[in-house]
Amino acid sequence: xxxxxxxxxxxxxxxxxxxxxxxxxxxxxxxxxxxxxxxxxxxxxxxxxxxxxxxxxxxxxxxxxxxxxxxxxxxxxxxxxxxxxxxxxxxxxxxxxxxxxxxxxxxxxxxxxxxxxxxxxxxxxxxxxxxxxxxxxxxxxxxxxxxxxxxxxxxxxxxxxxxxxxxxxxxxxxxxxxxxxxxxxxxxxxxxxxxxxxxxxxxxxxxxxxxxxxxxxxxxxxxxxxxxxxxxxxxxxxxxxxxxxxxxxxxxxxxxxxxxxxxxxxxxxxxxxxxxxxxxxxxxxxxxxxxxxxxxxxxxxxxxxxxxxxxxxxxxxxxxxxxxxxxxxxxxxxxxxxxxxxxxxxxxxxxxxxxxxxxxxxxxxxxxxxxxxxxxxxxxxxxxxxxxxxxxxxxxxxxxxxxxxxxxxxxxxxxxxxxxxxxxxxxxxxxxxxxxxxxxxxxxxxxxxxxxxxxxxxxxxxxxxxxxxxxxxxxxxxxxxxxxx
Length: 485
Known about the structure:
By secondary structure, the protein is α+β, with helices and mostly antiparallel strands. The protein has helices at 8-64, 68-78, 116-125, 165-212, 231-280, 286-317, 330-348, 366-383, 414-417, 429-434, 445-455; strands at residues 85-90, 95-98, 131-135, 142-151, 154-163, 326-329, 351-355, 361-364, 389-397, 400-407, 459-466, 469-477.
């Protein structure tokens, strides 16, 4: 729309003016119509009352005088009303008597006198019944009342004409007043609306100016909150909360990149060092080559596991973690995970024991749930002392399956418990890198396990941690009977 202003400030000013101006104009028009109607009604009442009083006087004069014509002429001479012209006609339209107006001296020169011939012509055209109409002229016209009257069995028509010039003068002053005042009020409304819009939108301008300066390198900046109690203050608070989340996300991504680079640097450094050492001599024995490639193989496997874990987390962050759901039994997956971890547990002299196994039908991805349980078991075996035990329990709590993995390790320090599900976080970083493990050992196992639980509408939490006992609890919803294979 070409005429509609593009500026929000101008639009608010225009709307404010329209919202105030439309009722104001409607009020002015309504007031003018009501006032005009009231003045006209008062004129009609005055003329009607005057004709009634004149009719009584005419009847009284007829009883005293010999004929109707004489009584009519006598009455119009003696009974006069201010600015009221009275005419008496017989049934043929002949004028029997014509009264003169009793005008006020101050107003007698302000208007032209009534054209009697025009009045008589108009009366002759009217039907023989009570009639009220307006005779127009250049100064506002005359209000004409006519009614039939029976005098001594003689049908007559009595008519009276009252000038509307004073009424028109009053209405003209009202019109001029409205024409002057309404534009002034609308202009005042527009100025006030512009001031209010400018004052109300000034925080938005300040926020926009500050927001334009915020970039990836200045995410610590925040929008100004001048009025926290109103809508604009609430908007600034919401945007600042968004910036807080973005800053945390950027920091997490930077830390993720730094930690990932650090974790990838170790196996790649091992690969490069081993290759340089192997190639530094022109001749080596088969045993030396086998030992060297064994080191390369271990570093390659660790590097592959880290890359796979990073790829899985990247897909989960992007919402592209593919969950191939099917009707499965969680107890079977628990048994497979226990069997898979026992060779590593035997190397450390740790027992893995099952307790309370129940039938647990779930709807999920077999491989991902196996990865979740294997990560929990690997973490428990890794931190259990030699000769200790890892207890695995599977139970049902209403509509949810609950898997708990408990180890007898040293426990997790209180200040580290809130961070154990962060990526690349390790309570004992040095030990996790050198010990045998079913996972990458890069501090990604618990982070991956929680993302898998979230993808299955479940939870993974640290239920308990103290010296000699640490328990992780995973809960998953039981699949309804109608979804089971």
